[in-house]
């Protein structure tokens, strides 16, 4: 199993960010290789499940994911199952009126994927993609200066 860690500060309310990332249908907006979310099931307690399609080097892979643990506006743990299985822990902290997010992902790639793509490529791509997901989330909530 391989682990990727990253952290970012976003100039937006914690509740706004938390609400956005705990709705799977929002994730393709910020996740570059996440091609589609289907069969989204939202629970009243904030958890979810969904089917996903993920593309690596143009090759589609399908699986399922769900939030398995959650403390609203504090943290959640999501798991995915499929050719790429993962456990991702998102932590949210208030920081000077902004939101600091720390993400840690443990993932495992199936032999089926490794037969198509080298592990070194997948490791590098996963680390870069984690950075992009957080950068895209930050850009989504970037404050636009008022026009005079």
- Separate helix tally: 3
What's the CATH architecture? 2-Layer Sandwich
Uncertain stretches of 5 or more adjacent residues: none
Q: Overall pLDDT, averaged?
A: 87
Class based on secondary structure composition and strand pairing? alpha+beta
Largest β-sheet summary: 7 strands, antiparallel
Describe this structure in words.
The chain is α+β, with helices and mostly antiparallel strands. It has a single domain, classed as 2-Layer Sandwich (Alpha-D-Glucose-1,6-Bisphosphate, Chain A, domain 4), CATH 3.30.530. It is built from three helices and seven strands; from the N terminus they run E-H-E-E-E-E-E-E-H-H. It has a seven-stranded antiparallel beta sheet with strand order 1-7-6-5-4-3-2.
List the helices and strands and how they pair.
Elements: E1 2-10, H1 14-21, E2 34-42, E3 48-56, E4 59-71, E5 75-81, E6 84-95, E7 98-109, H2 111-114, H3 119-140
